[in-house]
Write a structure and sequence with these properties.
Length: 109
């Protein structure tokens, strides 16, 4: 099964893992210590993130280190940004409408 970035970020635990790893490399054990779910559950989430290309896992000696491939989050960011801009325009338009109503009410008083 081929996974994509949207499947990866759909789960709140995986989003937390991405946040946890965002600025650093950590072992799988270090990642699992940050969560109140089992290490095997964290490993499954990391496997999905790895399949999506968001997290890479490298072996150094006995330890497996995880880190985020930030560039692979860009497709999700661009998609979300498109809708952010649309909503921002709608909210600005609504704010202008509300201000116009307020001004009309003040002038009618």
């Amino acid at each position: 099964m081929r996974r994509d970035v949207f499947q990866a970020i759909a789960d709140p635990i995986r989003r937390e893992i991405i946040d946890t790893l965002s600025g650093t490399q950590m072992t799988i054990n270090e990642v699992s210590e940050k969560f109140e779910i089992s290490r095997p559950a964290i490993s499954k989430h990391l496997k999905i993130l790895e399949e999506c290309g968001i997290v890479s896992v490298t072996q150094k000696g006995r330890e497996r280190f995880c880190y985020v491939n930030h560039e692979n989050l860009i497709p999700a960011f661009l998609w979300i940004e498109k809708y952010h801009k649309q909503w921002e325009k709608r909210i600005d338009s609504f704010e202008n409408y509300v201000n116009q109503l307020k001004n009309e009410n003040k002038s009618n008083e």
